[in-house]
Amino acid sequence: MAAQSEVYQLYADKLFPICLKYSKNYQDAEDTLQDSFLIIFEKIKQYQNKGSFEGWLKRITINTAIQKYREKQPLQIVKEVSENEEIEEIELESTSFNVDVLLSFIQKLPDRYRLVFNLYVLDNYAHKEIANLLNITESTSKSNLSRARKILKKQLEIHQQKEQKA
Q: Which pTM does this prediction carry?
């Protein structure tokens, strides 16, 4: 028990931002963190000291967040991108904004867009990995990412306009 408490104290603050990224609100993030630690403690003997322990914890946390959405409701996946539909790449990094503002906009994305956006942009998963995790095609992953970026870009532009007027 003392060892579990120590692991929790060392890593909760590092894993909670991951939970926030994948959750609609703070309370959902807290639930995801707790569920993640239950799984971590249940599977701790499976860690083989290969690779980063923190990386292993992060992967469990991400998978826990994704599983929570699978259990709540089936993901409503948009149709695959057609040959004629352009996948727009938007450089969010070049925009200056408050990270908390961006997080609030990410949390408001529809689940399917938020999951793909976080996995691809923030956690560096490849579209093939995302497709496998979410049981979608790679082109659907790309389409969802493109649409998430469009929504975020529009929200950030509106936010910047409001700030300039203030």
A: 0.76
CA 144 to chain centre: 13
The tens digit of pLDDT for each residue in 60-110 reads 999 999 988 777 755 444 444 444 445 444 454 444 567 788 889 999 999
- Could you tell me the CA-to-CA distances from 32 to 9, 20, 134, 149 in Å, in that order? 16, 9, 18, 25
